[in-house]
C-alpha cells in the first residue's frame, strides 16, 4: 500500500525508485503477493518510458515476467493487463493494444487503460485515433494523479499530426500541472522551433535543461526509436527532431 501511495506522488525518478523499493520489500516478505508484482512491474515500465532505466532490455524483461506471473495468479485483473500493456508499449506498441483492451473489457471505467491505449496508438502510427481514449480517461478521472501525463499525450498526438497550436496548449497545461515533468518541454521546443517562435523555444529549452541537463537530439532519437519501429511513427517523429534542432537543442 505504501508503494502504491508513493507511486501516485510526483512520478519523478526519485519517487518511482522509492515506490519500487517498497514493492521489493513486500515481495521479500511475500514472493507471491500479486499486488506487489504488479506494482514493481509498473515502476520498471515507468522508468523505461521516462528514460530513467539503466538497463532497458533487462528491466523490460523483468516487468513482463512480473506481469505474466500476476496474470497467471489473477487472470481477471484489469490492473495486471494494464501494466503488461505498459511493458509491451515500449518496443511493441501494437502488442500492447490487446492488453489495454482486455483491461477495459474487465473494467470499462478504468481510466489508466484508456490513457495507455492512447499512448500505444501514437507509437503505432495511429495518432489520430489516440484522442478518443485519452479524452475518455480525462472525463472518467479529471483529477487523476496521472492527468498531467494524459494531457501530455494529447499534446504529443497533436504534434504528430502537425497541429502545433493545439499541441502547445496541451503541453502548457501539462507544465502548469507538474513543472518537474520534463517531456512536455521537449514537445514545446519542437513546436516552437517548427513554427519559428525561437524566443519561446529558448525559454522552453532552459526549462528542459533545468530538469534534464543531459538531453540531446541523438539521445532522444535513440530512446524513442527503441519505443517503436513503426514506419509511420518514425517518419512523424523525425520531423519533430528537426523542430528540436531549430529550437536550439544540441545534437549530441
Structure description:
The chain has 252 residues and is mostly helical. The protein is built from 14 helices and no strands. The model has no long low-confidence stretch (mean pLDDT 93).
Give Rg in angstroms: 18 Å
* Low-pLDDT runs: none
DSSP summary: helix tally = 14
Q: Please state roughly what percent of the residues sit in beta strands, choosing from under 5%, 5-15%, 15-25%, 25-35%, 35-45% or over 45%.
A: under 5%
Instruction: Output the structural class.
Output: mainly alpha
The residue-averaged pLDDT reads 93
Distance between the termini: 41 Å
Give me the strand/helix succession: HHHHHHHHHHHHHH
Shape: globular
- The overall strand count is 0
Q: Describe the sheet with the most strands.
A: none
Share of helix among residues?
A: over 70%
Task: Annotate the secondary structure layout.
Layout: H1 2-7, H2 13-29, H3 34-49, H4 56-73, H5 78-89, H6 93-106, H7 111-123, H8 127-140, H9 147-160, H10 164-177, H11 183-194, H12 198-211, H13 217-227, H14 231-246
Amino acid at each position: 500500500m505504501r508503494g502504491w501511495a508513493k507511486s501516485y506522488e510526483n512520478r519523478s525518478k526519485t519517487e518511482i525508485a522509492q515506490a519500487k523499493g517498497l514493492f521489493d520489500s513486500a515481495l521479500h516478505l511475500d514472493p507471491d503477493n500479486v499486488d506487489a508484482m504488479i506494482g514493481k512491474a509498473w515502476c520498471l515500465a515507468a522508468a523505461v518510458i521516462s528514460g530513467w532505466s539503466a538497463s532497458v532490455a533487462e528491466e523490460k524483461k523483468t516487468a513482463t515476467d512480473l506481469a505474466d506471473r500476476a496474470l497467471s495468479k489473477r487472470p481477471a485483473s484489469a490492473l495486471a493487463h494494464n501494466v503488461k500493456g505498459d511493458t509491451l508499449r515500449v518496443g511493441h506498441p501494437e502488442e500492447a493494444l490487446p492488453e489495454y483492451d482486455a483491461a477495459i473489457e474487465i473494467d470499462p471505467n478504468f481510466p489508466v487503460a484508456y490513457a495507455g491505449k492512447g499512448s500505444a496508438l501514437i507509437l503505432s502510427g495511429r495518432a489520430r485515433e489516440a484522442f478518443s481514449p485519452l479524452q475518455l480517461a480525462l472525463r472518467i478521472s479529471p483529477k487523476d494523479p496521472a492527468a498531467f501525463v494524459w494531457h501530455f499525450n494529447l499534446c504529443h498526438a497533436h504534434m504528430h499530426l502537425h497541429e502545433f497550436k493545439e499541441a502547445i496548449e496541451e503541453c502548457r497545461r501539462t507544465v502548469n500541472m507538474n513543472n518537474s515533468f520534463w517531456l512536455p518541454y521537449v514537445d514545446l521546443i519542437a513546436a516552437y522551433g517548427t513554427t519559428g517562435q525561437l524566443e519561446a523555444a529558448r525559454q522552453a529549452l532552459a526549462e528542459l535543461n533545468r530538469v534534464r541537463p543531459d538531453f540531446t537530439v541523438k539521445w532522444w532519437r535513440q530512446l524513442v526509436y527503441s519505443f517503436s519501429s513503426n514506419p509511420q511513427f518514425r517518419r512523424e517523429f523525425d520531423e519533430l527532431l528537426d523542430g528540436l534542432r531549430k529550437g536550439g537543442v544540441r545534437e549530441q
